[in-house]
Design brief:
- The chain contains 8 helices and no strands.
- The protein is mainly α.
- It is globular and about 45 Å long.
């Protein structure tokens, strides 16, 4: 699994577009499940990149890491969305107004993200690519790659 290839400009755009869609749709489902609107649908750019990087590092050790990447990226975005949702609704979780364990079990068992959610992602993919294509300029992509190289040298 080649980290530099996954962090080329086009792949940064592709991965962020998918992560963003998975994240936003997951937040929407969490709001629907819990009936709690206290949640931000916006991803944190650097956090998303870091999450993708850590995922790639974990998959790098597996022979089939490349094959697993798409599903694992979706699962990572869902877990990140869930963690942020919990953080934003911590009091309701502590008071057991929001039950998190069944949600986490659904995520881990692969049931959280259903066919309809995947179809929504597919239909919005080009819009997300356009959005992230405007954000990830050549300069930003170069800066990300330089940070990646530096990070790898320090590890």
């Amino acid at each position: 699994m080649n980290l530099e290839r996954h962090f080329s400009k086009n792949n940064i755009i592709e991965n962020l577009a998918k992560y963003d869609m998975y994240y936003q749709i997951s937040i929407g489902k969490l709001i629907n499940i819990t009936k709690n609107n206290n949640a931000s649908t916006q991803i944190e750019f650097q956090y998303a990149l870091g999450s993708i990087y850590e995922l790639l590092k974990d998959l790098q050790t597996l022979d089939n890491g490349e094959e697993l990447f798409e599903d694992e990226l979706r699962k990572q975005a869902v877990m990140d969305a869930t963690q942020n949702f919990i953080n934003e609704n911590l009091q309701a979780v502590k008071e057991s107004k929001i039950e998190i364990e069944p949600i986490i079990n659904d995520i881990n068992d692969g049931f959280f993200f259903n066919r309809t959610m995947i179809e929504i992602c597919q239909s919005n993919h080009s819009k997300q690519l356009e959005k992230w294509g405007e954000i990830i300029t050549d300069e930003v992509a170069t800066a990300i790659m330089q940070s990646l190289i530096q990070l790898e040298e320090n590890n």
